[in-house]
Specification:
- The chain crosses the membrane at residues 29-62, 74-93, 113-130, 165-185, 206-227.
- Keywords: Membrane, Transmembrane, Transmembrane helix.
- By secondary structure, the protein is mainly α.
- The chain has one domain (2-230).
- Helices cover 73% and strands 0% of the residues.
- It contains 10 helices and no strands.
- It has helices at 2-20, 24-43, 47-63, 75-90, 115-129, 131-139, 147-152, 156-172, 176-195, 202-230.
- α1 (2-20) runs parallel beside α5 (115-129).
- It is globular, with a radius of gyration of 19 Å.
- The model is unreliable at 143-153 (pLDDT under 50).
């Protein structure tokens, strides 16, 4: 799981940096983050996985944008999902987790959480923040949604990450009734805006496509963590 966790951390931090910075500052911050996390990866006995994560993040940066859709569509997201799933299938939770595991506090309110699983959860949470927005935006590319519809449904950039984190957390904890209530509440809150939609149906399409893709990303991250913990 630590390999998938590192991949999601690297991609997620990269997107946060790209969204909030520009030009050379992005490169400086990325290099600093990569250098800071390298010793932690070494202490966790997973240096090779950290370099693999940086390679995946480089490919992600070349094929996605945090500001507008690219011609690659959802293929980069599919690639990250495939590589992360492959990392879980190959490694899962390791028996030996490096020197850092000796000082890792495994206990939590949810029970014992190993270092590998904690890295996986942290990676999923970081990825769901801005990278989830990148994936949702990619799903809406190519004129699927009119620009006025995107502007009409305000707050998506903030609501989306919060929603994905809630879906992720509630799924992992098995709170499916509460999860259903959260998803239903979003539809209720958005209903007045959608009901004012015109004949084109752009707002409704934007809401449905964006919401479904956002939920799939969160559920996929939760499944990845669950799969690792059960393997």
């Amino acid at each position: 799981m630590i390999g998938a966790g590192f991949i999601l951390v690297a991609v997620g931090l990269l997107d946060i940096a790209r969204r909030n910075l520009s030009g050379a500052r992005v490169g400086i911050v990325v290099v600093l983050l990569a250098g800071t996390l390298l010793p932690l990866a070494a202490w966790a006995g997973a240096t090779a996985w950290w370099f693999a994560a940086l390679a995946v993040a480089g490919g992600w940066a070349a094929t996605t944008s945090t500001r507008e859709p690219t011609r690659w569509g959802l293929w980069p997201a599919a690639g990250v999902a495939a590589v992360s799933a492959g990392a879980v299938a190959l490694v899962g939770i390791r028996d030996g987790q490096g020197p850092l595991a000796n000082i890792w506090p495994g206990g939590s309110p949810l029970g014992t959480v190993s270092l590998d699983l904690a890295v996986g959860i942290a990676g999923a949470l970081v990825f769901l923040l801005e990278s989830g927005n990148v994936i949702v935006r990619a799903s809406l590319r190519g004129g699927v949604v009119a620009a006025e519809a995107v502007g009409a449904l305000r707050g998506g950039r903030l609501i989306g990450p919060l929603e994905r984190i809630l879906v992720f957390a509630l799924t992992l904890t098995g709170a499916f009734t509460l999860l259903a209530a959260v998803l239903a509440a979003k539809g209720i809150v958005r209903f007045p805006e959608i009901s004012r939609d015109e004949d084109g149906g752009d707002r409704a399409e934007y809401f449905l496509v964006g919401s479904l893709v956002s939920w799939v990303v969160a559920l996929g991250a939760a499944f990845l963590v669950w799969w690792s913990g059960s393997s």
